[in-house]
Amino acid sequence: MKKTLLFTVLIITAIFLSFCSSTRRVTTSAEPAKLTFENQMSTVIQANCSPCHIPSKGGNKLALDNYTNVRTNIDSILHRIQLNPGEKGFMPFRKAKLSDSTIAVFKQWKEDGMLEK
Questions:
Q1: Which residue in 26, 32, 88, 116 is a FRET match for 16, CA 20 to 30 A apart?
Q2: d(CA 76, CA 2)
Q3: How far is Cα of residue 49 from the mean position of the Cα atoms in its chain?
Q4: What is the pLDDT of residue 11?
Q5: C-alpha–C-alpha distance, residues 34 and 117, integer Å
């Protein structure tokens, strides 16, 4: 009887230990990197707001080549780039409307806290 009980305990222990692992499983949700002006926004602005808003390219409109101006005017920028061509204030002036994915970059940068670097 004692042998049967001991054998049963050993089997149960072996089954229990077979589900244990020596490696620790880390379950962290990988948060996507936040957008920054320096890494993403400046490139998007150079590609879509040039030459009008880039003084070094001859632009004479509000300079959007620096973090401070873009951060200060993000609400206006978002409003204007979401307008449809022909509506007053539409940007980019005399160009096609920005793609939804490009507009999403501006929105995401604002949601991420408008980081500079």
A1: 26
A2: 82
A3: 20
A4: 73
A5: 10
- Please state, in angstroms and rounded to a whole number, the distance separating the CA atoms of residues 48 and 103: 11
User: Which contacts qualify for 82-90: CB closer than 8 Å, 24 or more apart?
Assistant: none
Q: Assign 9 a pLDDT band (cuts: 50, 70, 90).
A: low
Distance of alpha carbon 100 from alpha carbon 103, whole angstroms: 5
Which 8-state DSSP code applies to residue 57? G
Over residues 35-93, the pLDDT tens digits come to: 999 999 999 999 999 999 999 999 899 999 999 999 999 999 999 999 999 999 999 98
With 0-12 / 13-18 / 19 or more C-beta atoms within 10 angstroms meaning exposed / middle / buried, residue 112 is: middle
Q: Are the CB atoms for 106 and 42 separated by under 8 Å?
A: no
* Residue 88 parent element (H or E): none
Cis peptide leading into residue 51 (ω within 30°): yes
Strands (E), 5-91: none
pTM of the model: 0.72
